[in-house]
Amino acid sequence: xxxxxxxxxxxxxxxxxSISINNINQDKISLLFKEFNDEWKSxxxxxxxxxxxVGNNILIIGxxxxxGDMCGRSVDAQVRFVSQIDQEFGIDLLNRNNLxxxxxxxxCVFNFNDIENLIREEKINRKTIFFNxxxxxxxxFLQLSFEDSPLGLRYFS
Length: 157
Prior knowledge:
The chain is an alpha+beta fold. Helix content is 31%, strand content 25%. The protein has helices spanning 23-39, 72-89, 115-120, 150-156; strands at 11-16, 41-42, 45-46, 49-54, 58-63, 98-103, 106-111, 129-131, 143-145. Helix 1 packs antiparallel against helix 2. The relative contact order is 0.19.
């Protein structure tokens, strides 16, 4: 489970920034999320959301909304919130080419376009821990060996 406080079927979004988010900015973003979450609704019902940082490069948002599919407006509001953070703090959470790996227990962010070179140069391999940006439910595995990830299957099948 990614968030212990949320239901296993809760919706989650994982964002990866190539630009480090320091502790001071993490605290500021957490306060902004609290304000956002106080007003976050879907189909008129309050969404119980959660925010989590993994290291200084990964932000995860969870929505404990179990009333079926969340309305598009609530999902859009969450994306607008992340876009606001990107602009205000000069980070790039919405860059979907950012991929995160754990190398010697340090989170390293690489561009998707560099994966083949990273494999060839042996900077990453089958067993390198991959932060699973394919997560969509709270019960999904956040970390997988690269070979077991949906992306890794493309390179190691």
